[in-house]
Amino acid sequence: MSRTRQPSTRRIGAAERAIALLDTLAEGGELGTNEIARRTGMTPSTVSRQLGTLVAAGLVERAPSGRYRLGLRIVHLANALLARLDVREVARPHLQELVTTTGETATLSVPGDTDAITVDFVPGLHHVQPVSRLGRPSIAHATSAGKVMLAFSGRELPEGPLRAYTPRTITDPRALAEEIARVREQGWAKAIGEREPDLTAIAAPIRSARGELEAIVALQGPSSRFDDAEVERALPVLLAHADAISRELGWRPPGEDER
Questions:
Q1: Distance CA 250, CA 259 (A)
Q2: DSSP string covering 168-219, please?
């Protein structure tokens, strides 16, 4: 490190070769020494020395086939990086884009003890107050974000009697169980006038690198404007951004890495 605390601009050849070798294994899976040498342009002897060092560090391991592959220490390093990511920082540009595209208010919530809690939002063209504010709970059985939390967090469903916030609130535990099963199957939730009489909201899960529910992204607006037709237009956009945020956090659909 230089006196200015900036990284040196000098490059260490051995380190660059090690990085190239790791990149090659990341792209190629299990590879032999000669194949790595061919792909990287190094000599087999150089590759062999690099592999010895990387195997000793746990960054590379030798497979039963005798070839080499990335080691488990890579997972440890990746998890340390992912743990530093603030979902709000990752999601913020997506919230802004959602508002630009749909005109409705976009919110980001995280699972709480009983309800989902708003941790960020971007107001739409017609700001909905006091619906979108930091720290506001999204009631588990009466909001789209709350339903997503129940569907994808593994929490037990609340027992009755359930509070009715409006005439449309689901208060029957059996009806709620059916609704949550539907949310789990389709991958998103909708609430029309279930907590506030004239509010429609749709929400989708954001997943962590381990596939767990990390957060919830939602769009909401007055039912008079955010009607069925607008919801149908906005839903693919919401799902696309939920998927993009999840991927930025390190999530991949099951089986994708094997294809």
A1: 17
A2: TS---HHHHHHHHHHHHHHT-EEEESSSSTTEEEEEEEEE-TTSSEEEEEEE
Domain residue spans of the chain: 13-82, 85-248
Return the ∠ at Cα 30 (arms to 26 and 36), rounded to 5°. Answer: 75
pLDDT digit string, tens, across residues 155-181 = 889 887 899 999 999 999 999 999 999
pLDDT of amino acid 48: 94
> Same CATH topology for 13-82 and 85-248?
no
CATH topology of domain 13-82: Arc Repressor Mutant, subunit A (1.10.10)
- Fold designation for 85-248: Beta-Lactamase (3.30.450)
Percent of the chain surpassing pLDDT 90: 68
1, HSE (Cβ side, Cα atoms, 13 Å): 4
53-75 pLDDT, tens per residue?
999 999 999 999 999 999 988 87
| pLDDT at position 72 | 87
Among 142, 138, 139, CA closest to 172? 142
The Cα–Cα gap between 135 and 120 comes to: 9
